[in-house]
Amino acid sequence: MTDLSHPALPGSLPDKRQVAASFSRAAASYDSVAELQRAVGTALLDSLPASLQPRRWLDLGSGTGYFSRALAERFPQGQGVALDIAEGMLRHARPQGGAVHYVAGDAERLPLQSQCCDLIFSSLAVQWCADFASVLREARRTLAPGGVLAFASLCVGTLQELRESWQAVDGMVHVNRFRQLDDYQRLCAQSGLEVLTLNAQPHVLYYPDVRGLTHELKALGAHNLNPGRPGGLTGRARMMGLIQAYERFRQAEGLPATYQVVYAVLQKKGG
Question: What's the CATH fold of domain 16-159+175-207+259-267?
Answer without folding.
Answer: Rossmann fold (3.40.50)
